[in-house]
């Protein structure tokens, strides 16, 4: 079990904010942390890694990483950290980046092989694609066989194809190396695919803590499907009213009642759902 009960005053753009989180996860959990910009997600990861001072307690299985008396330095905490911007050493080849963490050539090649990067071992980071760099960063984070893998928006700089490849690697590494993983992400699909638990952080506090299914699925009750969108226009055509709604990259029209047309306005966030019909899925 991993227990985190920490406090830290943060100086945000709109004044002081207390980061105060108290939660527990189990070994082998994959926890996703989501929440608005500035809510304290990165700081929480840095605190777990020992890179930021704070008050409180952190215990990982039977080991205390921090309490009133103890504060293990980052190198004594068994964590691997994957940053948003890869943070590879530019003057070292791929294999040197891994061996810098631990001189275990056999394990380094095993990781590179798993990530399909074996051929790139002697290449330098500036000759790699974003997806390859992030997979190297993931391998490097695992060199010390960490108990906890921390990832701060690992997919944010990647295109959709690379994102999917990295997701597969992360899922495989998580299981194979018996990891407990904590990942900051804004992407519902990535969270749903990878995580079994999810926290929504708001203003430094744990606002929601549940399964991704519970927190992300928009269908409730008997609704067959549901999407979140924003009203971009409301128009009257003959005697009917139509709301024009933007959902992801699509624009849809939904017929609404006169009363709804009076109550809704442009800019409102809405959920569009259907109960009566099963949705049809057509490959495009
Ligand atoms: N060491 C620190 N001391 C005081 N305040 C800090 C410290 N580190 C970060 N902050 C402030 O705390 C707030 C939260 O920052 P943090 O980077 O943790 O948010 P975030 O949720 O990760 O945001 P984003 O999604 O934009 O990356 C910010 O306003 C930041 O300026």
From TrEMBL:
Pfam families: ABC_tran (PF00005). It comes from Nautilia profundicola (strain ATCC BAA-1463 / DSM 18972 / AmH). Keywords: ATP-binding, Nucleotide-binding, Transport. Residues 1-228 form the ABC transporter domain. It comes from the Bacteria. This is ATPase. Gene3D superfamilies: P-loop containing nucleotide triphosphate hydrolases. GO terms for molecular function: ATP binding; ATP hydrolysis activity.
